[in-house]
Amino acid sequence: MNAMKTALAAGAALVPLLAGCTVAGNAADGGGSGRIVVGYQSKTINTVTAGTLLRSLGYFEKRLKALGKRDGTEYSVAWRDYDTGAPITAQMLAGKIDIGSMGDYPLLINGSRAQAQGGDAKTSWVSVTGYNMRGSLNGVVVAPGSKARTLRDLKGETVSTSVGSAGHGTFVQAARKYGLDPAKDVKVENQQPTVGASALQAGSAAAFAQFVAWPGLLVNKGQARLLYDGGQLDVPTFHGVVVRNQFAEKNGKVLDAFLRAQIDATNYLHTHPLEAAESVAATTGLPAETVYLYNGAGGVATFDPTIKQGLKDAFVHDVPFLKSIGVIQTPLDVGPFINDSYIRKAYGASYDHDAASTANPAAITGTDEVCKTKVDDPKTAGEVWVQGENKTRPVAGPVCLLKNVRALQGEGKRLRAVYIPDSTTGTRWFADKDVWVEDPSAKAEQRFKPFATDEGAQKYIAAHSGAKTVTYDEAVRNA
């Protein structure tokens, strides 16, 4: 990504997550004082390049300082933290936030309500923060001891979610595939993520359907088990940046500074993945291991600011769905809402080339030191994070990961985290939280297979005679 490498150099010289800004006092006209208010969701970690990480790096402020020297304006930035996209949209419609980053469903709601209100309230989607083409940023978790093995087992139960969020949308669409009517067969509790997580712990909710990073957080802490991986739905999910059109037209240079700063932060995340994860963790209170699951090399989220055709198509697909569940009243006119002209200008000449690619710019590479194998297949590549080491160790595949873990344990090393993709969906997950299957009929290097959900493991076993589940420790010993 040539343009992003160029931006990285600029970012280096300059040297938690929904975002919004407001410039007051005609700041962009020059010779004034411009106060920019940035709202973000600190715990929605695949928006960190337009929120938590961007804020901690100070790239936006530094670009504004440079802009101010040119136009005679003194800019300042105030950051505001929110739990979901709904309050960001409310503040934008009130003219108090001009730039925001939020998930795909909240973006649709934002655009729909802004178009319905009309006039100065209209907004546009102008860039992407993080995405997953299969939908694995969302998931449904249950308590570790739950008897539920598929979504079908939630019939008659209470499910906590944030209505209108991507996590809610994933649950509704997936439940229908299992023959459930989400409006009749389950009781949906509309709750903030923090409230829903507590409800799951207390037993007042049988399941918790949410967006990044909540599923991974609860599983990592041993407080939940992944029941449904959003990657099974195979529908793209993403987060992006939205702007009030009036603001963009009057303050184009400020928006350009924001998007260039976002590119700077994206490049920093790609080149300093562990440092970025530790920074976000320190700011948000989330475990760095959970942040890295999503944001690290080969992570569940791919960070790329370009607006891709597949994401546009998913957007169009989601409009009638959101109307069908009553989340939006006025269908969004998607065409006018999508505007990549600003990010195209900020990104540079390689925009079209990079927008056409869905390869993760931060792929896992290197050599598996135990298996003595080159690590180059994103479908199987994983990582081992050793306590006290400032970089992760790449592994070529599931069996090699198990061999690495055994070797490191033999050396008395402590492991912070181990990551490996699901054998079916490709969703990167915690290897020690996976359901492992041993298949005696497979080649030695493929004998052990990880699955993020019990359902995935059971489907594999049903199709492969002799295959059986084993514990993670057994897999480590016997690989």
From TrEMBL:
According to the record, the signal peptide region is 1-27
Gene3D superfamilies in UniProt: Periplasmic binding protein-like II
Pfam families in the record:
NMT1
Instruction: Kindly give the SUPFAM superfamilies that the UniProt entry links to this protein.
Output: NosL/MerB-like, Periplasmic binding protein-like II
**Keyword tags:** Signal
Q: Where is the SsuA/THI5-like domain?
A: 134-276
Mind telling me what this protein is named?
ABC transporter substrate-binding protein
Q: Mind giving the lineage of the organism this protein is from?
A: Bacteria, Bacillati, Actinomycetota, Actinomycetes, Streptosporangiales
